Amino acid sequence: MKFTKMQGCGNDYVYVDCTKEVIEHIPETAVKVSDRHFGIGSDGLILIKSSETADFFMDMYNNDGSRGKMCGNGIRCVAKYVYDYGLTNKEHLRIETLSGIKELDLILQDGKVSQVTVNMGAPILQPSLIPVVSDKDVLIKEPITIDGQRYEITCVSMGNPHAVVFVEDTSSLPIEVIGPKFENHPIFPDRVNTEFIQIIDRTHIRMRVWERGSGETFACGTGACASVVACVLNGLTEPEVTVTLLGGDLSIRYDQKENTIYMTGPAVKVYEGEIEL
Length: 277
Hints:
Layout: E1 2-8, E2 11-17, H1 26-34, E3 44-49, E4 56-62, E5 67-68, H2 72-84, E6 92-97, E7 100-109, E8 112-121, E9 142-146, E10 149-157, E11 161-166, H3 175-183, E12 193-201, E13 204-211, E14 215-217, H4 221-233, E15 240-245, E16 248-255, E17 260-266, E18 268-274
Parallel strand pairs: 2-3, 4-6, 11-12, 13-15
Antiparallel strand pairs: 1-2, 1-18, 3-4, 4-5, 6-7, 7-8, 8-17, 9-10, 10-11, 12-13, 13-14, 15-16, 16-17
């Protein structure tokens, strides 16, 4: 299988051009290639396919083999892949995902894509659509108990479910301990991605993320978007925020008038190769 390893803010995936290749046993392949000791090493596998309704279709799998609906860092790298490898010459792309079609604007440097702005669409706040088990209209500062400790969560879907938790300090957070317990809490029927947010000031936050199916990752684009929405809903920041993740910075703008979120960030090719399956 020919592949390209790419990353956005350290959120790394193995990319395969499935307009040319056919991959069988995809969940098993995702697990194999993602292994950082016996495989390529990644947060998952992303297949770039043809689409009947958009320019391309992004089909993503987490490193445990589960299928994801949307990945903000991953979709930027899809845009870089299709432009840099000559699958398209468009600088405005429409990419189909399992959470809908996303529109992307490419930022070029020396003829290659360096950054991408993604129209991430509208945040979903209705609990049944996130999904979260609740009879409330929205979940803002909703109490939840993990290991006997009380936390407050603000729940948002960006095509995948997020629970945003505000903490004093992200650096000392025992994320490996509490992350899985948020992910598998019974109020989240499809599991959940959990963002732990430290407010630096009204235009800057720091974030760590525990992603369902992948564990802690260096970045999560949809999580950064969900976190800025949660910050605005809680009155903690302005609608345009720099989000500092373990792997770098993303610029998130929440246009409340349009009820639309825009994410701008890097897309980087690491290397390409072949692997025996």
